[in-house]
């Protein structure tokens, strides 16, 4: 079922409407924050969202977006994605997706304890692991850092890093690493570093979705209103207060990375 608005386009009306959207769910729970955020923003704007959820791997979710079998997904912004999909131009994490902490295997912590700059990290010769075509690869290239690109199921990176096969660490966002660690306790969370690049996640709507531009307008208006009111920042703080404390985010050494366009 394609998404639809009941009664009217409410960007121009005060009458409440249901917004039906087909969305992915991910095995690692990575959908929970984004679906709650969309629901909160639409509710504040006078809409009720009704989700049709499909439990799929992220790679398949992107294919389903291409074929019109999903209405939208959330992805790190890039020029390629901006050209391929209809972008809802409001950042969803206040840039926190670009704040990266490392999953590491045994003996790596000792190698990075003295790292406090990009040059220091380069000198370790350690290799970062990423899924195929991830934006992180462009960042690591731009900053002269070694990387390994995993084709197929990116979740194999957890075990590759554990055994130091092809990759020594796996960069994850501040908002996701603790949740993922619960299922991958054989890895350690690096204790000292925060790698930062300038990126956010956005909603992308498939171009094959009927009414894609209208859906973009409704979501963009609702999310902009939610962000401008300060509610997005408050939602992030309330949702992830324990995460920021557990990871000692404010006490980490910040390494700013050049962000490619």
Describe the protein's topology.
Elements (H helix, E strand, L loop, with lengths): L16 E9 L6 H13 L2 E9 L2 H10 L4 E5 L2 H6 L1 E3 L10 E6 L3 H5 L5 H7 L3 E4 L3 H8 L4 E4 L6 H6 L6 E5 L3 H5 L6 E2 L3 E4 L4 E5 L6 H17 L2 H16 L6 E4 L5
Parallel strand pairs: 1-2, 6-7, 6-8, 10-12
Antiparallel strand pairs: 3-11, 4-11, 5-8, 5-9, 5-10
Helix pairs in contact: 1-9
Q: Which terms would index this structure?
A:
261 residues, alpha/beta, D-Maltodextrin-Binding Protein, domain 2, 2 domains, seven-stranded mixed β-sheet, three-stranded antiparallel β-sheet, 10 helices, 12 strands, 23% strand, globular, disordered N terminus
Verbal overview:
With 261 residues, the protein is α/β, with parallel strands linked by helices. It folds into 2 domains: 10-95 and 200-229, D-Maltodextrin-Binding Protein, domain 2 (3-Layer(aba) Sandwich); 96-197 and 248-256, D-Maltodextrin-Binding Protein, domain 2. It has helices at residues 32-44, 58-67, 79-84, 108-112, 118-124, 135-142, 157-162, 177-181, 212-228, 231-246; strands spanning 17-25, 47-55, 72-76, 86-88, 99-104, 128-131, 147-150, 169-173, 188-189, 193-196, 201-205, 253-256. The strands form 3 sheets. Strands 5, 6, 7, 8, 9, 10 and 12 form a 7-stranded mixed sheet that branches. α6 links the parallel β6 (128-131) and β7. The longest helix has 17 residues, at 212-228.
């Amino acid at each position: 079922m394609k998404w639809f608005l009941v009664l009217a386009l409410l960007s121009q009306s005060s009458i409440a409407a249901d917004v039906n959207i087909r969305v992915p769910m991910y095995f690692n729970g990575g959908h929970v924050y984004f679906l709650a955020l969309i629901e909160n923003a639409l509710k504040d704007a006078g809409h009720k969202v009704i989700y049709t959820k499909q439990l799929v791997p992220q790679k398949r979710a992107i294919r389903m977006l291409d074929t019109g079998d999903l209405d939208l997904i959330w992805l790190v912004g890039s020029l390629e994605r901006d050209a391929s999909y209809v972008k809802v131009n409001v950042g969803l994490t206040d840039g926190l997706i670009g704040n990266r902490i490392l999953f590491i295997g045994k003996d790596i912590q000792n190698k990075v304890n003295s790292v406090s700059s990009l040059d220091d990290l380069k000198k370790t010769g350690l290799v970062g692991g990423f899924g195929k075509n991830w934006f992180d690869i462009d960042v690591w290239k731009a900053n002269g850092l070694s990387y390994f690109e995993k084709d197929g199921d990116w979740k194999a990176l957890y075990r590759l890093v554990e055994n130091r096969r092809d990759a020594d660490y796996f960069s994850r966002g501040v908002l996701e690493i603790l949740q993922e660690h619960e299922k991958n306790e054989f890895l350690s969370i690096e204790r000292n570093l925060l790698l930062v690049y300038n990126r956010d996640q956005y909603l992308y709507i498939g171009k094959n979705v009927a009414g894609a531009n209208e859906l973009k307008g409704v979501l963009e208006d609702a999310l902009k209103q939610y962000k401008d009111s300060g509610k997005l920042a408050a939602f992030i703080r309330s949702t992830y207060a324990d995460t920021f404390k557990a990871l000692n985010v404010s006490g980490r050494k910040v390494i700013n990375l050049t962000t490619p366009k």
